[in-house]
Each structure stands twice: as C-alpha cells, then as structure tokens.
Amino acid sequence: MVTALFAAVLASALDQRREGAKTRDKLDENNRTVRDLAVKVVNLSAQVDVLDAGQQHLAQGLADHRRLTDKNHAEVTGSLADARERLARIEGHLGIGLPPPNTADS
Fold this sequence. Notes:
It is built from one helix and no strands. It has one helix spanning 2-94. It is rod-shaped and about 135 Å long. The chain is 88% helix and 0% strand.
C-alpha cells in the first residue's frame, strides 16, 4: 500500500513537472512575441514621428504659399485698378467711352 501511495505521489510530481515545463515554454514564447511586438511599436512610433514632422513641414509650406498667393493677388488687383483708371482717363481725354445703353423703342 505504501508502494502504491509512493508511486501515485511520484506520478503526480512528474505530471506537475511536465505541465510546469509546458507552461514555461508557453511563457517563453509569449515573452518573445511581446518583445517582437515592442520592437515593432518602437519602429512604428518612429515612423509616426517622421510623418508628423513631414506634416508640419507641409503645413508651413502651405501657409507660406498662401501668404505669397494673397500678396500676388493684392498686387494684381491693385495693378488692374490702376489700369482701369488710366484707361478711363485716356478715354476721357480722347472723348470716347462706352456707348450709352440702347433704349428699347416702344
């Protein structure tokens, strides 16, 4: 009876050792996976930082372009107003201008 009890205890201990080894292997595998994922997260974070810097650079370039476009538009508008004024003075000096609007004969 003691031998049977000893065999049962020994079998239980061996079974626990085998299950412990399986658990340790799974934990090691999970740790490797976590390390790999951590490296990927660091790489992705670096890529996001680069993209953020690029986005800020593009936003600054767009703002600069907008200022330049507004400045050029203001210059063209002012130049056009000057040309209209000069044309009106020339037409007035020559005595020509826009013909009066046609009135409909009733």
